[in-house]
Structure formats: C-alpha cells, structure tokens
Design a protein that fits this description.
Glucose Oxidase, domain 1, alpha/beta, 13 strands, 46% helix
C-alpha cells in the first residue's frame, strides 16, 4: 500500500506544537447548605480570571434565565441581575452581546448553557478590555442535573483549580515521540542496508519489488513549505470546509501506514499463503495472497472505527495515537533525505515556518491568537467543532477536580516527529555505510529527546503553546554537526558521500602455467567454475566484490 510521500507530509507539518484548554469548576449548593456539587465549565480567562481556590470564590445566587438567550434588552427581567449570575442558553448572538447585557444590568458573572460541545467563549481585544465579569459555558446535561438536584435559591461559586505544571501525560508523549523517531530511523537504515548489501528471496512476486522511496530535492522542499503555508492559511479561513477532508486523508494515510508496519510480521506466518483466483478486478488482478487482503481489511477497519468514534474522548485518542505512530513510521521509511545539506535546508525552513505561525501571526489576527494555535485547537466559532487528527494526543492524568471535565489533551504535532525523524534516519544510513558504530544515530536520537524536554520546560514556564521545532531543530542539527566535526567527516556527511576506503587487491603471481585441456578450450579457474555453476568458490580464493558494495555514494 503506497501514498505519495511528499504530499502526505504536508498534513503532518501543519500542526507542530502543544496546546491546552481552560477548564474550571462551578460549585453549586443550596442556600444555607455547606455541601454542594462541582460541575465542569469552560471559560476564557481573557474576559475575567477566576480564583484558584473555592474558598476565595464568591458564592452568588443563580438567576435561571434558561428559557431565554439574552440577546436583546427585552430579555432582561425587570430589576436586572444585581449581585447575581444569570444562566442563559447559547445561540442567536455573540458571547460579547450576552455578557455585555449581563454586566450592564448588574450581573457578577454569566453562565451560558450549551447543547453542543463546550468551546471557549471568544472575543476580540477591545471586547475583552470592556468586560470585567467572568463568562463560562456549562453543558446542557449538567444544567438538567442542577435543576433536579438543587432548589430555586441555589448558589454558585466559579473557580479554576491550579493544576500541576507538568503532567504525567508528558512522559507518555515523550516516550511515544522518541520511540517513533528511534524506530523509524532504525527501520529506514535497515531497509537501505538490505537494499544495498543483501540478496534475498521472497515468497511471492509482488514482494520481490522493494517499496518505493522518495528522495527529497531542494525544489521539493521549497514546494512542500509553500504548500504547508497555503494549507494552514486555508484551514484558518475555511476550517469547517476543509477539516473533514483532512480527517479523510488521515484515515487513508494511516491505514496504509498500519499495513506497512504489520506486513513484515504477517508475511512470516506459515498459513494463508494461497492466492485469490485469476480476475480482472482493479488491484486484485495481481492475485494477492489471502493474508494480504485480510490485513488490508483489518487496517481499513481500524481507521474507519476511529473515524466513526473520533469524538469519544475517553478512548478514541488511543486509536488515533496508534494510527499516527504507524503513519509516522511509514513516512520515515518512505521519505528519504539524501544529504545533510538537504536535511539542513528542510529543518531550517520549517524552523522559520513554525516560529512565524506561532509567534508572529498573532499580530495579524483579529482574536490575537496565532494561526497555528487556532488551527490546532480548532476555531472557537467552528460550527462542526472538529479537531485535526494530525497530532499525538494524551489526556491529562493528574488528580484534580477538573477530572470531572472532558479532560484537556496535551498535543504534539506529527511534524515535530517527522521533520527531526528524517534527520535521524539519515544519520542511521550514514552510520551503516561508514561502519561508524551508530554514533550519529544514537547522538541525534538523544538530541531529539533533549530538545523535546526543553520544549516541555518552555511550555511550563511560558504557559502558552510552543513551536516545538524552535527547540528540536537546533538540538538535532547542531549535535549531528558536532559529531561530524569531531570525527573529521563533515565533507562526507554534508554531501552524503560514503567514507569507504577502496579495496586493495594484491597482484596475483603465476608460479605455474596451467596446461590447456586436450580439446583446446580455455581452462577455467576454480573460482570461475564455481561462479558458472552458481556455487560458492573454494575457501581462500578471491571473490568478486558485488557492485552494491563498491558503491560509495549515499543516495
């Protein structure tokens, strides 16, 4: 199963950072009662911040206005909402119009009940400066539970518990990312070594042809970056129209990646080697093995299962991560950077791309958010509320009152795995060709892990989404460069030339002239006779060096 390598990489490079959402708690209780119950809310701290401790939050009376959407002055009851928090339905107008009406009529906060998925109530910088009361979204199911549990005079206190700076899910994301880079780099090098130095037989004709490898050229790199920028901008302006296409492409590409990862194991099974009967159907006319068809159906079934249940936050992320890792491994095996020069160009250009779309674009957007963050997390005004699947995601695992919420996820874009992973794969191939004991491969893999740890520290310190390539690119590139300088192999490492010394063959001295055979034909040497009979030459005789071993250029 194949997919064009460069085209599929475009989707992986669109999302390259880690983001999180703002969840809080609404503690409801009856008037005069000390005990109550917490409910999850979704808020935007740019309207107004919430206290971190429940004991510091003000307990105010709820004004149940859920039959209304609070979009015009006629929806405001006589007397307004003095020292109260109205609870209204979502829809018909913007968040700003609702909260402005509430604040003008004495409200100390606003709860908006949503029947859709909770999204942060967004606005622009001017609107944020005008409003000084908190506004949060509450799910419709929680509103129904509140109505059944508490009396009419219920009180509410909104707060945002302070979670640990670093979560245990960081460890899982770290292991997944570093493991994928290491396995992908090792796999790419092993495949290249087999292609160069080994002659092996496979059990069917379809397997005798190696899978295609895409060598990336400077022109392809420039085209790739231009297409990445264009696609990211298009997603920012037409997110709802394009998100479903990205999901479809992910399903196709990930099923191909899963097939590519599982086939080396399935082909070793001793059963289901029979082929389907002759036919004229597309793809099936090649008469693939039954086990290949079963594996294809399994991979497609896994992708379809994820697509159907992709919004099940409790477990669908496991399928997404598994498919994503398979996709990354497939791309690292298929896409090949032929020189360190090409590696430097690709990583440097994507370094600038990542920094620009995270740190520079907020100065040009109306909401003040970066285009990268908006696309990765999904625009707050999206009607479909879809999330792009081109990320590794793990829910927060720490113990917190926010466990009641749909846990916010920590995300790492596929681009942050694939782009440095291509350099790691190049280092492994160079190690194999130069017999350098995997020094480049090990050093670059460790540098990737260190860069990822620096990314996590920067995220914890700055409390905002980070362009991971800002830290991963310098760590991996500089480490590879230092190793090449230390080993005095920079010219070969830069151009991809193997540092294999030529084989010196000692001259053969003829001590005895062989008599010609009686029939006048030329006499065959033992080595030539063995070659003509497809046998190994006798021990001690010089053997002809295969052409693949003479090649000293790393393609």
């Amino acid at each position: 199963m194949k997919v064009p390598g460069l085209g599929a990489l475009i989707w992986a490079a669109l999302v390259s950072h880690k983001v999180s959402a703002e969840y809080g708690m609404a503690h409801f209780s009856d008037k005069g009662e000390s005990k109550g119950k917490d409910y999850c809310i979704f808020f935007n701290s740019q309207w107004a911040r919430l206290p971190q401790d429940l004991h510091k939050a003000s307990r105010l009376q709820i004004y149940d206005l859920t039959p209304s959407v609070l979009c015009s002055p006629v929806d405001v009851p006589e007397g307004g909402f003095p020292n109260r928090i109205p609870m209204v339905m979502r829809g018909n107008c913007t968040f700003y119009e609702k909260v402005r009406l509430a604040q003008m009529n004495g409200a100390k906060g606003l709860l908006i009940v949503s029947k859709d998925r909770l999204t942060p109530p967004a606005g622009n910088k001017t609107e944020y400066e005008e409003i000084d009361i908190p506004v949060a979204l509450l799910s419709y199911s929680d509103m129904l539970d509140i109505s059944k549990t508490f009396n009419q005079g219920r009180l509410v206190a909104m707060y945002a518990p302070n979670e640990p700076v670093l979560d245990y899910n960081m460890v899982i994301i770290f292991l997944m990312a570093v493991g994928t880079v290491a396995m992908g780099g090792h796999w790419a090098g092993s495949k290249d070594r087999k292609k160069r130095y080994m002659k092996y037989k496979r059990d069917d004709g379809a397997d005798k042809q190696d899978e295609e490898t895409v060598d990336v050229t400077p022109i392809m790199i420039c085209m790739f970056v231009v297409m990445c920028c264009s696609m990211l901008v298009l997603l920012y302006f037409f997110y709802d129209s394009l998100a479903i296409w990205v999901i479809g492409i992910f399903c196709v590409a990930s099923s191909m990646g899963l097939y590519s990862c599982l086939w080396p194991f399935v082909r070793r099974l001793p059963f289901c080697k029979c082929r389907i009967p002759e036919n004229n159907l597309p793809y099936l006319h090649k008469r693939p093995q039954v086990r290949a068809l079963v594996l294809s159906a399994l991979c497609v079934g896994v992708s379809i299962t994820w697509m159907v249940f992709r919004n099940e936050d409790q477990w669908a992320w496991v399928l997404q991560d598994g498919l994503g890792i398979a996709f990354c491994l497939y791309m690292l095996k298929t896409v090949r950077l032929p020189t360190f020069k090409a590696c430097t160009l690709l990583l440097a250009v994507l370094f600038v791309y990542d920094v620009f779309f995270v740190f520079i674009t907020p100065f040009f957007t109306k909401s003040g958010e970066s285009i990268m963050v908006e696309v990765a997390a999904g625009p707050s005004d999206s009607a479909m509320h879809e999330k792009l699947p081109m990320v590794l995601k793990v829910p927060r695992l720490n113990s917190s009152p926010l466990a009641l919420c749909d846990r916010p996820f920590s995300l790492l874009g596929f681009g942050d795995v694939l782009v440095p992973g291509l350099l790691v794969a190049y280092c492994n191939r160079f190690d194999i060709l130069t017999h350098s004991s995997r020094i480049y491969f090990v050093a670059c893999t460790i540098a990737y892990g260190v860069g990822l740890l620096i990314t996590f520290v920067a995220l914890a310190v700055m409390q905002m989404g980070q362009p991971a390539l800002l830290y991963l690119v310098p760590c991996t590139l500089l480490t590879s460069l230092v190793v090449a300088l230390w080993r005095r192999e920079l010219p070969q490492f830069w151009t991809g030339s193997g540092f294999v010394p030529p084989i010196a063959l000692a001259p053969i001295k003829c001590t005895q002239t062989a008599e010609p055979p009686p029939d006048g034909s030329k006499a065959e040497t033992p080595a030539a006779k063995a070659h003509n009979q497809n046998e190994d030459p006798p021990a001690g005789l010089p053997q002809e060096t295969p052409l693949a071993e003479k090649e000293n250029i790393l393609n």
